[in-house]
Structures are given as C-alpha cells and as structure tokens.
Amino acid sequence: MAxxxxxxxxxxxxxxxxxxxxxxxxxRPRSDRINQxxxxxxxxxAYVFGRRETVRRVEGNPPRVVVRRxxxxxxxxxxxxxxxxxxxxxxxxxxxxRLMGNRTSR
Length: 106
Fold this sequence. Notes:
By secondary structure, the protein is an alpha+beta fold. It has helices at about 1-5, 30-40, 90-100; strands spanning about 10-15, 25, 45-50, 50-55, 65-70, 75-80.
C-alpha cells in the first residue's frame, strides 16, 4: 500500500515528538502511517477524547497498567466537523469496518 503512495510522491503529516514543540512535518508514507490514516478520527475532521482507557492493576509486582480501546459509542467526546478533513467521517467508519473484517488475529 505504501508503495503506491510513494510512487505518487504523496506525503503524510506526522508530529516530531523528539523536538520540544512537536512540530508537524510531512514524511514519506509507511504502512503503519497509512493504517493510522485509515483508522484515526482526526483525519476525518473529528475531535475525539476517550478512544482508549487506562486501567491500573495493583495486583502483581510490579503493578500493571493496561490500555484498551473503547467502542465509538462509548467515547465521552466526539465532535464531528471540528476541523478540515482528509476523508469523510462515513468513509472513516467504512475503513474501520473493512480493516476489522480483514484482521487475521483478535
């Protein structure tokens, strides 16, 4: 998938977290970045909070921290059309369903 994007000379935005201000830079696409692009609501113009929840387990040594995904219906905050989108929210949902159907492991 990334090969097509690279052949077309397309770039994707990424944050440079190693720099203090976390600037957005444009980078050559990689498969993991394209997968993120197809799944993440921010690319569909949506602001979301609560996609994941952190659960701290005190049993065991050391205590464990488990991060798990939350179903879209249970996100505390979802603001559609918050900013300009690369894809529609409907296309995002279609992409997520298709990717779930293509999974080989659970």
